Amino acid sequence: MNQHTPRPDGGIAVPDKADLDAIAAGASKIGFDIVDVAGFLDDVEAHARGQVGALRTVTESASAIETANSAMRVAIDRVNRLSEETRLKMAGTAEALRASDRQNQQVAGWVSAVDNRMQAVVTQLDAVTRTNDQITSIARQVNLLAINAKIEAVRAGDDGRGFGVVADAIKQLSQETGAAAQSITGTVAGLEQVISVLCNEATEIASLARAVIENSAVTETALTELDDRVRDSAVTTAGMADAAGRVSDAVELFRPAFEGIAGAAQRTSGGVGDARDRVHGLIDQSEALVQRAVRIGGAGEDSHFIEALLGFSARVCEAFEDGIDSGAITEAALFDHRYDPIPGTDPPQLIAPFTAFTDRVLPPIQEEALRFDPRVVFCAAVDRNGYLPTHNRKFSQPQGSDPVWNTANCRNRRLFDDRVGLKAGRNQQPFLLQVYRRDMGGGSFKLMKDLSAPIRARGRHWGGLRFAYHA
Asked: Using one digit for the tens of pLDDT, what is the confidence trace for 160-208?
């Protein structure tokens, strides 16, 4: 253990230089550990937020599933009702079709019978026509006989007068018979035409009736198949309704579990957030402890960085004062914190009224500081808002098409308003030593130290000079 220098009055011993160095080193070590824990808590909180979001999404999805499932059950019930109504209507339609088929068969039978009877009538009319033709022929023959008898009666004179009267009567009868036969022939011909038309129509009707019967059979077959399918659909929808019911029951079972998990994750996230905030407060306290230890004489590996930084920051302050004195820049322009976006930059770069001036005066100082120690990563001035106008040359490359490459190599004219950047720009103590985790990509982090000292011009606080180096 280090010895203490005793007080002349015999009071409490005053810690010597070694003790102060140990306090400074211990405070720095505590700061490292706290920053590491804070980074871990940041990661845990990020994961917890992601889990809370995922669980919220799952819970919302479960609600959506339940809502959709309820709607599906309503739709299935409606389909079942419609299917049953359709089946009943189809059953009635099929029965009506069967009755119509029976009636059509009766009509077809009646039409066939009428057709047969018409054919019999035609046959009888043919017989009548033949008989009438015979009567006509006989009438002509009788008429000829009457004419001959009349001639013979004339030749016989008075003796044949009575015979002549008979001959005249026979002639008249044959003529009337011929006229009647002629009239019958005309009537029969008319009947034959009407009956022929009726026969043709009866044949067509019979054909149509047979076609209707055939179509009815096809339709009945189709209706029977459709009825079977409707029944199958009813069975299927009943199964779907049962499955939907089981889904609803399952959702109801796991919803409370998800809600409980989500609530626990939310509480965990909130607790981690609170712990992180408290750890960030410890970071501030550890940084203040390091500064106090150094101010009262403690030293360590950071001492020569602090001394060098104070020298470089003094030179920056001097360059700013000289710029105002020489008219290279006005005080108003130096403290004008308007930032205009540079079009087409990704990540966005900005330009301020003083950027051209810092591009001229800062590189010589910052490049020299970069060469001060191999552990130095960068040296750059930032204003009170974290705006970094002029970086080291290796970080001031022209932007390309790859935003990832630009982020690593084009860090000038950028706004770094994170916790470390803002504290460095707004600190007005002689120096500020911060510890932070630098993201190296791929989930890898490296602890870095950020040492900063205030920059002033014309008695006004402009920002700070940052000195970042490996821990």
From this structure: 777 677 777 777 777 777 787 778 778 877 777 777 777 777 777 767 7
Residues 316 and 369: beta-carbon distance below 8 Å? no
What pLDDT, on the 0 to 100 scale, is given for residue 423? 95
Residues 188 and 131 in one domain: yes
Whether 37 is in a domain gets the answer: no
CA 189 to chain centre: 84
Residue 212's pLDDT is what?
Answer: 64
Give the per-residue pLDDT at 146: 75
* Residue 99 shares a structural domain with residue 240: yes
pTM comes to 0.54
* Same domain flag for 353 and 244: no
CB 269 within 8 A of CB 49: yes
pLDDT band at 466 (very low <50, low <70, confident <90, very high): very high
Whether 256 has a pLDDT exceeding 90, the answer reads no
Indicate the SS3 state at residue 463.
Answer: strand
**How many domains does the chain divide into?**
2
Phi, psi of 449 (to 5 degrees): -110, 135
Please name which of 401, 342, 412, 404 lies closest in space to residue 379, comparing C-alpha atoms.
Answer: 412
Strand order in the sheet with 376-383: 376-383, 460-470, 444-457, 432-441
For the CA atoms of 371, 372, 374, 375, the dihedral, rounded to the nearest 10 degrees, stands at -120
Tell how strand 414-415 and strand 432-441 pair up: unpaired
Backbone angles phi, psi at 327, to 5 degrees: 85, 10
Pair 114, 242 in one domain: yes
CATH of the domain at 179: 1.10.287.950
In whole angstroms, give the CA distance from residue 94 to residue 235.
21
**How buried is residue 201: exposed, middle or buried, by Cβ count under 10 Å (0-12/13-18/19+)?**
middle
